[in-house]
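TL;DR need structure tokens for one chain.
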Amino acid sequence: MENVIENIKELKTKKSAIILVHNYQRPEIQDIADYIGDSLGLSKKASELTCKLIIFCGVKFMAESAKILSPQKKVILPNKQAGCQMADMVTVDELKQLKSKHPDAAVVCYVNTNADVKAECDVCCTSANAVKVVQNIEAKKIIFVPDKNLANYVQRFTDKEIIPYNGYCYVHEKITPEDVKQARQIHKEAVIIVHPECRKEVIDLVVAERKSCSGGTDEVLSTDGMIRYAKSSNAKKIIVGTEEGILYRLKKENPDKLFYTLGPARMCKNMKLTTLSDVYFALLEEQYEIEIDEQIKDRAKRALDKMLDYT
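>> reply
TL;DR here they are.
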């Protein structure tokens, strides 16, 4: 493994490349990152850098977003099989059918969508800014794709009619209210933080019974929100309701605190596909480059840019 890491470092320097890594990636992939974070934050970082080659260790829609925001740069997805099941749940044809049923609705798409779907939307959002985006849209009716759980979360904060698509993250879907109840019994002095992709009844339980203890408060947060919370909170024990990969970073950056998964550790198999060997060959051969049709790229970029206007 050490030889592979050294080879990666040499190639990265030789090619003036940058390695971007999502919070859910394997520990050894996180350790070689130039930047680590959530999908949109990494894509925005890519657009600010002067490098010509970006190795994006995540899943396909994330690398696509980086390409959309940095069209002049070469973006590589190290493992071409690393897709997102939730992103694949909605297609352009299905979205067009939904739009035809609700012609007066604005279309908000979660950043966890493929580029061709983004191109059919009015504005993108992230789990961190979804509420603000919807609140700032003038339309009173909102089609929200693909995550029904994030749509339900947004509905809590607006009187607008939210029309959710029936997609979901299979990882967060596995987290149950029973997990929350058991965690509170086992770790009475811990706070609970959950991702808004969790099921409505899980968020209901966390929000309805939100408690403060050991210097913190139960919260619903995006992955980067969880990272910030862990650093700023005085809580010494934190139960985390999201994909288990983030715990590696949380523990690494906060060695004085204890972190537990909410229920059994839930893993995204696609997030774990990328290996050090994949990263090495991505740098060596520049294989699995992200390519997007120019018209799709331009229209998808408008949806991403509009999000920034609203937030």
